[in-house]
Amino acid sequence: MVQGKDDTLRDYLTRFNKESLKIKDLEPSFALAALNSGLKDNFPFTLSLMKKPAQDMADLLKRAEKYVNADEAMEARKQKTSWTDQLVEKEEHLRSALGKNQKMKEKPELTKDDRRHKLTKRKESPKRGTPIPNSNNSPPPWRQVPGY
Is position 47 within any domain? Predict the structure, then answer.
């Protein structure tokens, strides 16, 4: 029995376990060798077993569980936001930002006279309070106090 091209490690282990339960008095070392030889080539788990062979079936299954969990976590992460989805989202954001910037440029600029007119309107507004006298001849208030 071999791991299929599209089989995940979990799928292969489940299928292998079901088949191995059908065999009476299956020698654990034979089951270990069969499972090991059926794994995909150039698969991270297969490479791990080549570097450090499993001591027994329990060791192999314990190590396999870590790889299954890692594979499933990576798959969930890919489904959450893929790299291409992030690029598309970023491009849409940039386009909308450029559109807003373009609209700002389309607004007519105010001339100096227009701005002066707006400023004078503000000064005369009753909400602003008492205007400050614009006389350079009078001394500052702290100088007007005697003995200071």
Answer: yes
